[in-house]
């Protein structure tokens, strides 16, 4: 299988949406909100994409300062292309774009929680999430 990896290549919101729908990540992303999906793509500052011909088969979408912290917002691979090393390669290419002190941070999907351990990630139980719909006291 010939996969072409690209750094910060243009990805349309619809192409990204199609990938999300074809991966397990679509269950936890706002796939019915094209405006939000468009904002997600347009405001990422590091995207590593995996292509088979003209088909987007995987993506690592991040927001980073490139020196201290990189939040890997989405690591998605089409279900038909999973277990082929694409996700691992996307993560490696992401790290290669970062400075030597930059930490790669992500929130694991429940089904993928164990996946990151074998890639060398360390589990950190100190993550907190505040949903926009929650009010601050």
How many structural units, i.e. domains?
Answer: 1
Beta-strand content estimate: 15-25%
> What structural class do the secondary elements suggest?
alpha+beta
Widest sheet: strand order?
A: 1-2-3-4-5
CATH architecture descriptor name: 3-Layer(aba) Sandwich
**Topology-level CATH name:** Aminopeptidase
- Cα shape: globular
Distance between the termini: 53 Å
In CATH, the homologous superfamily goes by the name Gcn5-related N-acetyltransferase (GNAT)
Describe the structure.
- The protein is built from 3 helices and 5 strands, in the order βααβββαβ.
- The chain has a single domain, classed as Aminopeptidase.
- Strands 1-2-3-4-5 form a 5-stranded mixed β-sheet.
- It has helices at 13-21, 34-42, 86-96, and strands spanning 4-7, 46-52, 55-64, 69-77, 103-105.
- It is an alpha+beta fold.
- Strand 4 (69-77), helix 3 and strand 5 form a beta-alpha-beta unit.
- Helix content is 21%, strand content 24%.
- The protein is globular and about 45 Å long.
- The model has no long low-confidence stretch (mean pLDDT 91).
List the helices and strands and how they pair.
Layout: E1 4-7, H1 13-21, H2 34-42, E2 46-52, E3 55-64, E4 69-77, H3 86-96, E5 103-105
Parallel strand pairs: 4-5
Antiparallel strand pairs: 1-2, 2-3, 3-4
Helix pairs in contact: 1-2
